[in-house]
Amino acid sequence: xxxxxxxxxxxxxxxxxxxxxxxxxxxxxxxxxxxxxxxxxxxxxxxxxxxxxxxxxxxxxxxxxxxxxxxxxxxxxxxxxxxxxxxxxxxxxxxxxxxxxxxxxxxxxxxxxxxxxxxxxxxxxxxxxxxxxxxxxxxxxxxxxxxxxxxxxxxxxxxxxxxxxxxxxxxxxxxxxxxxxxxxxxxxxxxxxxxxxxxxxxxxxxxxxxxxxxxxxxxxxxxxxxxxxxxxxxxxxxxxxxxxxxxxxxxxxxxxxxxxxxxxxxxxxxxxxxxxxxxxxxxxxxxxxxxxxxxxxxxxxxxxxxxxxxxxxxxxxxxxxxxxxxxxxxxxxxxxxxxxxxxxxxxxxxxxxxxxxxxxxxxxxxxxxxxxxxxxxxxxxxxxxxxxxxxxxxxxxxxxxxxxxx
Length: 406
Prior knowledge:
By secondary structure, this protein is of the alpha/beta class. It has helices spanning 5-12, 16-20, 36-40, 47-57, 64-71, 98-109, 115-119, 122-142, 152-165, 173-183, 186-193, 204-209, 211-214, 223-228, 294-306, 323-329, 348-360, 381-402, and strands at 87-92, 236-243, 246-253, 272-278, 315-321, 371-375. GO terms for molecular function: G protein-coupled receptor binding; G-protein beta/gamma-subunit complex binding; GTP binding; GTPase activity; metal ion binding. InterPro entries: Gprotein_alpha_I, Gprotein_alpha_su, GproteinA_insert, P-loop_NTPase.
């Protein structure tokens, strides 16, 4: 029980506007959008319902009506209690899609990317495209794969020479034509199909297939082009945006091992941890250690985060990301590559649910702490928008629980 209005006000500052504006229509803990109508009624709470609980639970206040009005209004600048901001930490192993989620927040909750900002991605996109075809060509030698057309061997040599001499992030006509010829070679396609055996950007097929568009005069990257671009995250990247009358601070930190020592600098005051794990990484190894399976690394990392005493009172949401790539891959590569004990059907639903359970079963405090999970595709704006709406409601619900109101 709170002893005074000030303590009560301090606890509920973050959620006062939601109470006033009836944002508690639903609290979706489900992963699929079509389940929303069925679950909405279960969590429905009107302002009148909350008012009744206030009166019942805080009957020792001298004037409950005045207290409710107090916490339902924005705090003035000279208030003794500063407004709180939800602080979200994006955590996960390298190349799990964290930075793409941040880009989606700019698209969904800010004004998106301006023409000038999109143009700044051209050099990154050209660099990603070049590095992708170089990785495939180099892997052909490692995997002993021959070109379908022997003439492509000369193209491969010219490719390397141009890569060493041109300005980074440019795409001269000669380079474009070489890349186009190489990408259509049958041997290159065989090597691409074995991409899990070497390091290759997820965006490789997207850019290489559409290279004609990328080199058109006046080319302006689309939102999808921007979302699929890849730059290794170093340090801590902060993004701020508003949603449902809350001002969010989202932190993206590099996921590779060398970057993790920096995580501790943004853990203080964290409201919610969003842990990203790539579903499609079950047959891949780390960039920084080719002896370690990426999925195993994610499980190990998740275990250390979700069971750490520092996060006992922190909401944790699991994003099982890259579901689109996983759906394609699971038809060709059996999940037993990563989990030898798995003998179920190698389908998207069965294999995906098995992976989800491997993560959720690591939670050692199941009775007191729920881990919320979602299958996600970070490059799908509609999917990310729906899932983040659910995450916001989870944050609200968990804090209402802390107040004894849910």
